[in-house]
Design goal:
This protein is α/β, with parallel strands linked by helices and 220 residues long. It contains eight helices and five strands. It has one domain (2-219): Rossmann fold, CATH 3.40.50.620. Residues 209-220 have low confidence and may be disordered.
Length: 220
């Protein structure tokens, strides 16, 4: 089985389109934004015909930062959404849940800019793969976007822009707050994509049907 950690965000949605996993897994571990992630993930999975499963584990009391509903201490030097051992927990929980399903590959949507987190680095992912391989035969941990940005991932995946409109990336609430790092990242991405799409439309040569239509209009 090939499974994808699926939060319903931009990166995991792009990877769902690119990698076509056998199963997408969304984990509710007690984060305040879980209902929004699950809602988006279920809808996107249904749109692209992807099998989807929600796993629930109650770990909110072990977290920290704004994803628990309690803002981080700015003096800590950590990003506001920092949750200790978050990716380690997500990968472990997914592997536990799917261990008896012939899990061969687990995909995570880590991108280049995630290296701001200790668990978003190549060293971390390599270490996690080795750890999981001690109990899962013929297993590999994949991070197809590890060395590229989210913008590059969107371009490479050729994901439909309308599909991206259903994604959810908020860290603070069940509906997008429009102010956290997750929301701001998505808003800035969509603004750049809109500019790119506008430029492409402006410079794209007209199709034969468009030329024909213009000719007909001129002759009316």
């Amino acid at each position: 089985m090939k499974a994808l950690l699926f939060s319903g965000g931009v990166e995991s949605t792009c990877l769902a389109v690119m990698t076509k996993p056998d199963l997408a897994v969304t984990i509710d571990y007690g984060q305040v934004c879980a209902p929004g992630e699950i809602r988006a993930a279920k809808h996107i999975a249904s749109l692209i015909g992807m099998s989807h499963r929600v796993i629930e584990v109650s770990l909110g009391h072990l977290g920290s930062g704004e994803m628990t509903g309690v803002p981080s201490d700015d003096a800590s030097g950590r990003v506001p959404e920092h949750w200790p051992f978050r990716n380690q927990m997500l990968l472990t929980v997914a592997a536990m849940a799917l261990a008896d399903c012939d899990l061969r590959e687990l995909i995570i949507g880590t991108v280049l800019t995630d290296r701001v987190h200790n668990d978003g680095t190549p060293d971390f992912l390599s270490a996690m793969e080795r750890l999981l391989q001690t109990q899962l035969a013929d297993f590999r941990l994949s991070a197809p976007a590890l060395t590229i940005t989210t913008d590059d991932l969107v371009r490479r995946s050729s994901v439909d822009r309308d599909l991206l409109g259903w994604t959810f990336s908020c860290h603070r609430a069940q509906v997008a707050c429009g102010a956290c790092r997750g929301c701001n990242k998505s808003l800035e991405l969509f603004a750049r994509l809109d500019r790119e799409d506008g430029d492409a439309f402006a410079t794209k040569p007209p199709s034969e049907s468009e030329v024909s239509s213009r000719s007909i209009l001129r002759n009316l």
